[in-house]
């Protein structure tokens, strides 16, 4: 009964939604949507939370208790921020997986008040929502308008490959390639049909990006 009350409260006051026929699945779907976007925001920023336990997550789609957080010095999926994370459980590249797993633990808790079918359907959306949010945020940070999913995915893969091969930090990469600027033949070819957006500010013409 308390879990039902809590679910109702979360829908009404955190998401401004009226509870429907399956409030638990409704809430989980909203949490999955925001958490997938949170995961994408970490990856595009080159941010490493460090300790993505379930108790460091809010059902509002926010995280807290950052502990040993870091910004990536270079694009390295295996980079860990926590000195005690010897197995790389919360390594940079595993953050989406960790956040998806956290959503699954919420689904398990909500199973007490809801049939599994709706919860599973809500949970399975993480796998399609995350890449969509990643694509949107990545192109926003590059300062180019999206094309289509296959082309955008190819561009993102090439950007990641470029950072791995050159050792550029994400801050340096996104700054130097803002608006489709590129100094490699592969990226020049991929950027050719992309329209620049929002690159006229004086900041983008400085010699180097500001950094934490």
Account of the protein in words:
The chain is mostly helical. The longest helix is centred in the N-terminal third of the chain and has 23 residues. The N and C termini lie far apart (46 Å).
Strand elements, count: 2
The description of the largest β-sheet is: 2 strands, antiparallel
Radius of gyration: 19 Å
Helix/strand structural class: mainly alpha
Strand order of the largest sheet: 1-2
Average pLDDT works out at: 94
Order of helices and strands: HHEEHHHHHH
Which percent range fits the helix content?
40-55%
State the gist of this model.
With 212 residues, the chain is mainly α. The chain is 52% helix and 2% strand.
Features:
212 residues, mainly alpha
Q: What is the element layout, followed by pairings?
A:
Blueprint: H1 2-14, H2 23-45, E1 47-48, E2 70-71, H3 95-110, H4 116-124, H5 126-142, H6 149-166, H7 170-176, H8 185-191
Antiparallel strand pairs: 1-2
């Amino acid at each position: 009964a308390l879990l039902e009350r809590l679910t109702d409260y979360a829908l009404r006051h955190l998401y401004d939604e009226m509870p429907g026929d399956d409030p638990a699945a409704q809430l989980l779907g909203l949490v999955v949507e925001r958490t997938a976007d949170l995961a994408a925001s970490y990856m595009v920023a080159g941010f490493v939370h460090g300790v993505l336990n379930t108790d460091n997550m809010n059902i509002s789609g926010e995280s807290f208790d950052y502990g040993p957080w870091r910004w990536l010095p270079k694009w390295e999926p295996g980079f860990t921020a926590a000195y005690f994370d010897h197995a790389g459980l919360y390594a940079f590249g595993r953050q989406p997986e960790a956040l998806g797993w956290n959503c699954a633990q919420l689904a398990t808790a909500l199973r007490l008040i809801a049939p599994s079918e709706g919860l599973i359907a809500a949970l399975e959306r993480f796998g399609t929502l995350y890449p969509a949010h990643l694509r949107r945020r990545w192109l926003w940070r590059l300062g180019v308008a999206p094309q289509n999913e296959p082309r955008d995915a190819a561009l993102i893969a090439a950007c990641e490959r470029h950072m791995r091969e050159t050792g550029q930090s994400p801050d340096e990469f996104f700054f130097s390639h803002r608006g489709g600027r590129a100094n490699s033949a592969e990226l020049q070819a991929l950027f050719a049909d992309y329209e620049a957006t929002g690159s006229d500010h004086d900041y983008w013409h400085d010699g180097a990006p500001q950094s934490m």
